[in-house]
Amino acid sequence: MIGRYIPFIAFDKPYVGYGHRVLPGEPYRRGMQLTEKQADALLRKDLRKFVSLYKAYGKDALLLGVLAYNCGPGVVNKSTVLKKLKSGNRDIFKSYTAHCRYKGKFHAQLHQRRIIEVTVLFDN
Fold first, then answer.
1. CB neighbours (10 Å) of residue 69?
2. What is the mean pLDDT of the chain?
3. Residue closest to 95 by CA, chosen among 54, 56, 67, 62
4. Residue 1: is its pLDDT beyond 60?
């Protein structure tokens, strides 16, 4: 899902690497630039954490974990995507791709990302 390494540096928020949110006690600081290897390791660690939250969903855990990484587990837990999967309804394309808003506004690039994610990671 991440084409190539682009350093993510946010000076107003505590994020590093590919979007890892710095937690209390971690050695990272605002504006700190990581190597590609460090950023990749953090991404994999974060994805493992989020995928493990949804391991009960078997093959769908990766898709739910990716959505949780991008939107937060609170959003996923309240989402139509999770409700549909819980009920056995696998028609989630529209619900999944609806997670494409930034500051309340539709964002075409996020919509395209969600389409790619559901196409690659979801097995109907």
1. 21
2. 88
3. 67
4. no
Phi, psi angles (nearest 5°) of residue 79 = -75, 155
Among 28-37, 73-82, 83-92, the least confident range:
28-37
- Please answer whether residues 14 and 22 qualify as being in contact, where contact means their C-beta atoms are separated by less than 8 angstroms: yes
Other Cβ atoms less than 10 A from the Cβ of 113: the count is 17
For 2, 59, 74, 79, 92, the CA distances from 56, given in Å and listed in that order, are 26, 9, 17, 16, 18
Please, what sign has the CA dihedral across residues 26, 28, 34, 40? positive
Q: What is the chain's percent helix, strand, coil content, to nearest 5?
A: 55, 5, 40
Q: DSSP labels for 76-120?
A: HHHSHHHHHHHHT----HHHHHT--EETTEE-HHHHHHHHHHHHH
Closest CA to 93 of 101, 84, 102: 84
Report which of 23, 22, 19, 58 is spatially closest to residue 40, judged by C-alpha positions: 19
pTM for this entry: 0.82
